[in-house]
Amino acid sequence: MQNTVSLPFGGADDTNGGSRTISVSALNRVARETLEARFPLLWVSGEISNLTRAPSGHLYFTLKDAQAQVRCTMWRNRAQLLPFRPENGMRVDARSVVTLYEARGDFQLSVEALRQTGQGNLFEAFLHLKEKLAAEGLFDPAAKRELPPYPRRIGVVTSSAAAAWKDVLAALQRRAPHLEVVLYPSPVQGADAGARLAEAVRTADARAAEDGIDLLLVVRGGGSIEDLWAFNDEALARAIRACTVPVVSGVGHETDFTIADFAADVRAATPTGAAELASAGYHAARARVGEIERSLSAGMERRLHGLAQRLDRAALRLVHPRERLGLARERSERLAARLGAAMTRRLERLEGARRVLELRLVARKPDLRREMERCVRAAQRLGAAGEQLVQRRAERIAALATHLQHLAPQAVLARGYSITRDADGRILRAADETTAGEEISVELAIGRLRAIVNSTEA
């Protein structure tokens, strides 16, 4: 076996006392080539942990035993040939090439094949406890409770420093910002984390009436089986089942399962998913209220349009000028009243909107003066539009009155026309309606004539 390695500048050391150097990339390349050349293809036994399946199909995981661990990579073309699905906690033999990932200088194994040799100790303990509690009926689906659709206040068991706590708050703020949240802090990782979590659940249960909570979330972000082991604690599972309020478990990622998930009334894939389940009723109700509001608004608008069309058609059937004038006056008055009411409602809505904006923008300190001026200008424009509409209606009424005056009989007589009646007072429209010698009367613009018919001409 050689004791030296040939370096890129031509020697293992500097015998001339010079200042020769080697780049990091060159050093890592030489280290990788040396490892791959000096170590044969070999089987390495260990337990899978921190398994990640990349979208590309590659597998990344850690192979460990009681004293050490090593990173492993299995490329897609090798992984797709596996006769089983690798999982965290599984004990395997890995046929591997010892190598080094040059970009980060990480020592790792390039795995070409896997074969099962049994399950890891933690995974075996997980399965044993799961079977034990399932036999006791702790996971019985019939004992699961439905979540309240509209919880008044939600309790959360997690660490105040955990990302899961921030995820829950962010999700609730987005979906149901009015919901109050009570934190029952507990470590979520460590030797005594399981007992502390169980104690936090019991505390939340004991204080449920006092704190006003009617739903409890037990949450933690993702991690390896060791990181999540506190949630496989038997005392925690029993505390969850003994809790008088429904419990939602949101531990890890979608592929992670713990004993707490089986004991809880509902399992969520993530802490954010747990918050979404807790606020699902409010979220759906808010969407439904919006739909009802839009439906009512559209229905009212259709109803008003239909009534307006009926009113217009009825008005068209009236032919007498005086009646039309009266209807126009009434319609003008109604329009003026509607306009006044609309202006009032508009101003009320603007005032309400202004108050809402004041409340929402206190922290941001907006330019309220400019917004007030804009509202005033809008009110002024609306008032001016109303005045213009009333003025146009008044002018139309005046024009109709003038037209009616022109059509009056006295106005016609004043232009030189007359009305001729027979002795019975009937208006004569043709010469053959009277005879010679018959007395007739002629009504003029001023006065009336009585005459005797000498002759008639057709």
From TrEMBL:
Q: Identify the coding gene.
A: xseA
**UniProt-recorded name of the protein:** Exodeoxyribonuclease 7 large subunit
Q: Which GO terms describe its molecular function?
A: exodeoxyribonuclease VII activity; nucleic acid binding
Q: Family assignment?
A: Belongs to the XseA family.
Q: Which reaction does it catalyse?
A: Exonucleolytic cleavage in either 5'- to 3'- or 3'- to 5'-direction to yield nucleoside 5'-phosphates
Domain Exonuclease VII large subunit C-terminal intervals? 138-451
Q: Where does it reside?
A: Cytoplasm
HAMAP family xrefs: Exonuc_7_L
A Gene Ontology annotation in the biological process aspect, one of them, is:
DNA catabolic process
Instruction: Offer a single GO CC term for the protein.
Output: exodeoxyribonuclease VII complex
Q: Does the keyword Nuclease apply?
A: yes
Entry's CDD domains?
ExoVII_LU_OBF
Domain (OB-fold nucleic acid binding) ranges: 22-114
Q: Could you confirm whether the keyword Secreted appears in this record?
A: no
Function, as annotated: Bidirectionally degrades single-stranded DNA into large acid-insoluble oligonucleotides, which are then degraded further into small acid-soluble oligonucleotides.
**How would you summarize the oligomeric state and partners of this protein?**
Heterooligomer composed of large and small subunits.
Matching entries from Pfam families are given as:
Exonuc_VII_L, tRNA_anti_2
Q: What's the EC number here?
A: 3.1.11.6
* EC main group: hydrolase
Query: Could you tell me the keywords of this UniProt record?
Result: Cytoplasm, Exonuclease, Hydrolase, Nuclease
InterPro entries associated with the record: Exonuc_VII_L, Exonuc_VII_lsu_C, OB-fold_nuc-bd_dom
